[in-house]
Each structure stands twice: as C-alpha cells, then as structure tokens.
Amino acid sequence: GQNIDQPTEMTATEGAIVQINCTYQTSGFNGLFWYQQHAGEAPTFLSYNVLDGLEEKGRFSSFLSRSKGYSYLLLKELQMKDSASYLCAVRDNTNAGKSTFGDGTTLTVKP
Amino acid sequence: NAGVMQNPRHLVRRRGQEARLRCSPMKGHSHVYWYRQLPEEGLKFMVYLQKENIIDESGMPKERFSAEFPKEGPSILRIQQVVRGDSAAYFCASSPRGNSEKLFFGSGTQLSVL
C-alpha cells in the first residue's frame, strides 16, 4: 500500500516563494506527480519526477528524493491565481500503475 | 482535440435511486481511472479500466458500485441504491497507456443524494 502526507494548509504572500512538502511510503515506487486543483475544478498536471533531483518548469519546480521518500513543490513569484489545492500523487509499480493521491495542501496567497 | 468529457456535471438523486456517471476519455486514450473526492479531501482511487477490461478495482466498494468501459461508448460508473454518503465529486481521468507521465482529468460529476 501507499501512505502520502502533506500539510493541510499553507499561506504565503504575493511575490514570495513557497515550498510544499510531501512524504510518502510505498511498497513499489514508479513516479511522483504534483497536480493543481482550483475549487470546483478538475486537477491539472504540474510536474512528474521519477528520478532523484530537481525538475524546473517556469515558476514551478519539483524535487524528489527516493531514498528519503520525500518530494517538494516550489512555487516562485507567487500570484493570487496560485491560490489552490496542490495534490501530491505517487504511482505504484504494478501493471495497473495507478496513482494514489494525498489529501492536498490548500495554498492561500495574500496580497 | 477535446479533453476528457464527463456528464452530467451535476446529478441529484434521492436515496435508493440509481446514479450513472459517464466519462469519455481523450481521443486516443484507452485507459480510464475513476476517483472520488469528498470536500476538503484528496482524490481516492476507485477503479482502473481499459477497453472492455477492469484492471484494478481495489478502491471500489464491494456493493452497489460497478464500472464498465465498453468497446464502443463512454466509461460508466454506476451506483445503485444511492445513500447520502455517496454524495461526492467523481472524477474520471484518462491516459494513452498505463504508465503515462500524467493523467488528464475531466471536470467531474458532483453527485448529491437527498
């Protein structure tokens, strides 16, 4: 099985940098994903890590350490529209390859 | 290229009725996943299907819930004899293969049981 932990809520200021952590325990690892979800909307893909290290994509970066079961999502130059829930998901290495999601971190960006 | 289409967007049912939720994956995608989301919670995996096959239904309740993905037509999540606890947002996602780099989600169906 899989167990995924991330903070429930975070608050940050417009223009600042925020780091959202995710720790996981899994019996078989085959990739970690970050999704963004605005209230009442579908989750949208942000990033994918399968090897250790940092993946950068514009204002968003994601880091993975497989040995520590740890990832973080880094958001730079925060904008008001970044207020959303950020979901960490881990895919298992079975043939099904389903993704298990954490409960999400609700980020509130204040002016 | 249309995205993942789910309908209806909102569905209201009385206790004991049946709910049918539809999901048409993106063009070229043959893998469909259903997730349930309660308010203030994350997505909970329910079932993973390929065309005409259920690959993993480990997240499906043992009773009243069923899913299919026929050769032709959308994937259907069916809930019989709904209860208030079934009220949730149900999201469908699709991918072109089982170990894709990402899932594409539909806008979800909000089920409300009165």
Description of the structure:
The complex is a heterodimer of chains A (111) and B (114). With 111 residues, chain A is an all-beta fold. Chain A contains no helices and eleven strands. The radius of gyration of chain A is 14 Å and the shape is globular. Chain B has no helices and eleven strands. In chain B, strands 2, 4, 5, 6, 9, 10 and 11 form a seven-stranded mixed β-sheet that branches. A four-stranded antiparallel β-sheet of chain B has the order 1-3-8-7, with no helix packed on it. Chain B is globular, with a radius of gyration of 13 Å. The A-B interface holds A 30-31, 33, 35, 41-45, 48, 87, 89, 91, 94-104 and B 4, 33, 35, 40-45, 48, 55-56, 91, 98-99, 101-108.
Task: Report on the biggest sheet of chain A.
Answer: 6 strands, mixed
User: Approximately how much beta-strand content do the residues of chain A carry?
Assistant: over 45%
Total of DSSP H or I helical runs spanning 4+ residues of chain B:
0
Briefly note the structural class of the backbone of chain A.
Answer: mainly beta
The helix-and-strand class of chain B reads: mainly beta
Helical element count of chain A?
0
Summarize the amount of helix of chain B as a percent range. under 10%
User: What is the terminal-to-terminal distance of chain B?
Assistant: 36 Å
Largest sheet features of chain B: 7 strands, mixed
- Beta strand count of chain B: 11
Number of strands of chain A: 11
- Tell me, briefly, the overall form of chain A: globular
The average pLDDT value of chain A, as a whole number, equals 93
User: What is the typical, i.e. mean, pLDDT of chain B?
Assistant: 92
